[in-house]
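Example record used in the benchmark description.
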Amino acid sequence: MSTPKDKIHKLLDRLPDEASLEDIQYHILSSMPYLTHRKFPLPLDSDQVAQDWRRRGYSCDLFTDPPGREWNDFVHSTNELVTVVDGRLRVTIDGEEITVEPGDEVLIPRDVRHSVKNICSSTTHWLYGYD
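Model output (structure tokens):
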């Protein structure tokens, strides 16, 4: 059984010796699963999320979206994190649809097309941040 460390070593072995640190980071992040279920305990403490993200080098801001609100086909030059405070989102990353519930964390790798939609029948509050 391979460990996460083994998987990273295999990934690094495939990269050219002259790969930059940014390229290495990008390949590691883009090979990880996008969704971490229940990353943060409920009820969600936005300050705790912000503190966690800042330790990891990310900003943290709040979006408030009415039912059905969509943000389509975005591409950023930085990695993005998303966590739902209350409500529910559908995040589509490079064609893969993910349902995001309160406390879940989504990693959207840089330079990857993504969309976000509030699929809750009420307002959804969600945090986002960039590195």
